[in-house]
Design goal:
Alpha-Beta Plaits, 4 strands, four-stranded antiparallel β-sheet, 103 residues, alpha+beta
């Protein structure tokens, strides 16, 4: 099982609409990726590790798949539609990481 994490750095002055992300963007992603998508979650950053510090990321979206190949096969044909929706909720350039889930 793999997890694709889409992380939005917390930069002062940038915009991020969490309501749109959770209620419109993520359902769009789920619809487009279909049965290849095994699950998903959204994290909303609260704080950094030091008392009083800001979170490194304002938000993170996590989606799981059986394999990197199943992610690529489902995402590739839909990448343009998914990426075109980003300006509707953020002006932040996301960072992407694909990880193997160990536990």
């Amino acid at each position: 099982m793999i997890k694709v994490s889409v992380m939005y750095p917390n930069t002062p002055g940038d915009k991020f609409d969490m309501d749109y992300y959770c209620n419109t963007h993520m359902p769009l992603v789920a619809e487009l990726l279909g049965d290849a998508l095994k699950g998903g979650a959204v994290d909303s950053g609260l704080a950094g590790g030091a008392p009083g510090s800001s979170p490194a990321f304002i938000a993170m979206g996590h989606i799981t798949f059986d394999s990197v190949e199943s992610f690529q096969q489902s995402f590739g044909p839909n990448a343009e539609k998914i990426m075109a929706d980003l300006p509707n909720f953020t002006n932040i350039q996301p960072q992407i990481q694909i990880s193997e889930i160990k536990l």
